Amino acid sequence: MKWYDNAIIYQIYPKSFQDSNGDGIGDLPGIIQRLDYIEQLGVNTIWLNPIFVSPQVDNGYDVSNYFAIDPSLGTIDDFEDLLKEAHRRNIYIILDLPINHTSDQHPWFRDAVTNKNSIFKDYYIWKKQVNGHEPNNWGSFFGGSVWSKVHSDSDYYYFHLFDKKMPDLNWKNVEVQNSMADIAKFWIQKGVDGFRLDAFIHMAKADLGQMALSNSEKYPVDDTFFANLPELKKYLGGFVSQIKKENSDIFLLGEAASANAYQAAEYTQPEENGCDMVVSSDNFGEVYDDDNFGDVPKFFRPRKLSLNRFKNTFVKWESVLANTSFPALTWGNHDISRFVDRLNLPTDDNKLKKSLAVMMFLQRGIPIIYYGEELGQHGLKYEKLEDFDDQRAVDLIQNLRAKDIPDEQILELLNDQDEMTARGPFQWDDSQFVGFSNAQPWNWAEHSEENAQQEQSDPNSVLNFYEKLLRLKSTDCFTLGNYRLLKTDDNLFVFERRTSNDYGLVVVNISNKSIDYPLPVKFDCRIALSNQDIKLTNGQIHLDPWGCCALVNDGRID
Ligand code: NOJ
Question: pTM score > 0.90 for this model?
Answer without folding.
Answer: yes
